[in-house]
DNA sequence: TATGAATGAGTTTTCATTCAT
DNA sequence: AATGAATGAAAACTCATTCAT
């Protein structure tokens, strides 16, 4: 029984309309803020209000929540992805590159409260987000990990940890980090790297 | 099995009359089932129905969802907690004990759909659950970790990883494991241990 | 992106709860009234308000709009269905029986504003209603029509009009009858019968 | 075909400049298409998109949905209206003329998905549509009906069926015909005519 | 003239939670 | 003690309509 807005539902809006462009960015900024405060599952209404627009406007620009989330974090994901190859060149050792890159990623996830939570594909609508993260970052984590492993020589874990598991593992380790001062995601992640590179 | 009597409530009752826990147990059984099927966030109504009682009854026994979850998993958490000291004695090395115990914990977490998700204290109402897990298991993980560290000698991480971080880290690594066949929580956890014990 | 009512959505209702039974009937009465005023597509909220209950209560009793509509009109549909065989016995001729029965049906449909509109299965959610009407009344209309045809002798229309077409035709002829004083559904329907029985 | 020029707008323009109707026609074509696909209740946006114009343009040309619908079907309604007198002359009997004309009307209504539904004046905003149909076609149906009645001699229905009732009755009988293969609007309509002309 | 961004009311549906019986 | 009816806040999503540009 979806709806169908028949004649009855027609009523002129109380106050006029028509503010122009610029909404897109206002929306992105507002969403980023709200995501930090309430997580990526925050009500659309909340975002709209914060942005000073109507909910319809949010839906116009980002028909699904995923698209909004992806848009909000695209810049940072891109930056993170691009940092990988660069670090490999600039760092003293591949292991350093990997550690630095991962720290970058952790910082990103921890700063954006709720992002880590949204990263595992369970939540409805965060699938696109998950896919985007995985698609963009797994290749990077894979190559950094491979380089580091090659550099430290044979390790003791046979079917070696792959880039996907590393990325998701790191992502998971960041969950709740922002709100729990006794929890040190960074240290855990570095320990995980150490473990992955143990000869 | 709504009629299952509490295992040790037989013989001459030491307490006055002693036979309340009837729906209590039915509730626990039902909740356990539902948690497996639909996760720990399943509607209360679903649990009540499965148990053959009214929702009011659920609330009477377990005013908050947390209390219900805690009750459901208490047995297993206890078993896990008690396994710690025993493993320390039985295992060849403290590291073995730690690894085995953590694997036990991982198994528990991964088997119970959604438990790992509920474990980090973000969600309103899961605080009691979180507190119970932490209160009961952190001492165990701490002592196992300490023993293992003592055994392997000095490690390279200065303010060493503590039992709380280990427990929560492991918990986080288990998130989503059940629904993602490409994700290997166990391997990640073992790598984490390796990292924590790297000289 | 259905929903999922997480912790955040939990807020104690401002005013208490728990009025007992009797809602069912209040609901039915209210719905009947609202259907007359606004058609069977009236917002659920409107019905709930008129009945003095919350929307949840409506959904509890009638999970789909169809079930509500069917419940509202069941009595009258039953009465109509049962009148068929009786009229066949009591009337002077089968044609009289048919005409009287159809007039009964018309009266029913026209009185309940919007019922005729809902009768054709297009509207979302009125499928069950449609099925109920058809299932219950087509057999009646069929037998009355057959009896009348048998009585008047051979007619000029070869593949004779069947009970289904008669019922739906009559139903359609009643659409809008209540709100258009210049439109005489009854006369049209009687003409239709005449046409169906023309030798 | 957005560039299709209005058929008779060629030659030397008798009016000042005369070449506005451009998007007007594109709109009409698009609306016709959309009406067939999604019914006359299709979202305005859909029509605008199909026509390659903004919604504002639709509103500029057709402030109400009715006006759009009327415009879309004007040609065909005109054709139908003009067919009446012609059929009266060309047909063997006035009854034949009436039957043929009504069949024409039925064909028109059934082909246009949702048109029959929109024809009864209930829905807000379809008033203009209703008025146009009635204003244009009732005179035709009246005269054809009158001629047929005069030809068959006295009938048994006292206040005889008028052209308005005939037209609306036929319209109603067409509702849902397109989507229900078991429903034969044409046969019903012919039966109705038979009934109206029964001596 | 045309555009289309913006608006926001309106509707459905789900559940946690209370409390009269 | 148990029950489950009742409540109503919430959240998603759709579209008709306006109006700044």
Automatic annotation (TrEMBL), chains A, B, C, D:
Residues 43-62 bind DNA. Transmembrane segments: none annotated. Residues 1-22 are annotated as: Disordered. InterPro entries: Homeodomain-like_sf, HTH-type_TetR-like_transc_reg, HTH_TetR. Gene3D superfamilies: Tetracycline Repressor, domain 2 (1.10.357.10). GO terms for molecular function: DNA-binding transcription factor activity; transcription cis-regulatory region binding. It comes from the Bacteria. The keyword Transcription regulation applies. Residues 21-80 form the HTH tetR-type domain. Keywords: DNA-binding, Transcription, Transcription regulation. PANTHER family: HTH-TYPE TRANSCRIPTIONAL REGULATOR BETI, HTH-TYPE TRANSCRIPTIONAL REGULATOR RUTR. This is AcrR family transcriptional regulator. It comes from Frigoribacterium faeni.
